[in-house]
Amino acid sequence: MNAIAPPNRPRLTFATASWYFLRASGVAMLVLVLGHLFIMHYLNVPSRTDTAFVARRWLSLFWLGFDWLLLLTALLHGLAGLQTVARDYLHAEPARALANRAILALAVVFIAIGTAAILTFVPGRSAAVDAAALRYAWIGTVLIGLLSALATVTYLGALLLVLYLAYHWLRQIPFGRWSLRGQWAWGLHRLTGLGILGFLLIHVLDITLLPIAPAVYDRTIASYANPYLMPMEIALVAAVLYHALNGSRLIATEIWDRRARKIQGRLILAVLASTAVLVLPSIVVLLRQ
User: Fold this and answer.
1) Phi, psi (degrees; rounded to nearest 5) at 203
2) Are 229 and 147 in contact (CB under 8 A)?
3) Burial, 140: exposed, middle or buried (Cβ in 10 Å; 0-12, 13-18, 19+)?
4) Is 213 left (phi over 0), alpha (psi -120 to 50) or beta?
5) Residue 212 and residue 105: Cα distance in Å, rounded?
6) Phi, psi of 232 (to 5 degrees)
7) Mean pLDDT of 80-98
8) What is the pLDDT of residues 221-237, one digit of tens each?
């Protein structure tokens, strides 16, 4: 499974609009997300992007607008992808309608609280607000717990995948459709997308601490230096790189169709190799902290 053709419908539907939006927002995110990734994981380490770092960054209207546009685009892109996954696995119309409403509610809530945090954060008021915000300490504890849970799911998923591959290889059991490179590329694209979305939702929640409890935000961000979370950070960088590169491959395949299809195997290998090479500098930066 490689490129997915747009829904063939005579009129614009929600599914069709979602298909086009995923590609348009994906192109925009190549600049926004990769730029953010470079700053946060190559020039810096996440555990040091504390309140003071954010305050210096948001003194510039350019970076304030950049981060808000990134928040908006990433959330909408991720939730549109989640809607596509729900449509693939929910076949009853009532279930699909319920999923669409739930995803729309998520979009409205997270965009609203993320935008409110960005617009109401005033660096000069941080100390005064922080002194009165000790009651929000529990939020930081919950967020650290959610990050640890996400890390655990990531590690268990990776372990199960290795065991699955080892079991089939040792017993010489055919992989069926999973013997196709395109099938693995599709599966990894979907899994990395869901993983990135999960982290993004948690990250939006910790951003809400900036205007109300900067010290709690700093404690939450500092937890990224926890050795248990470090492999997840590396996996996150790899997931973002793979998702971006493989998404570009899919778009190229849809544009050039037959010419691109002839070299799909080589393109998939190029995506995997590029991901492995590009993630290495972030690992060095992370371990040197």
Assistant:
1) -65, -40
2) yes
3) buried
4) beta
5) 24
6) -65, -35
7) 89
8) 999 989 999 999 999 99
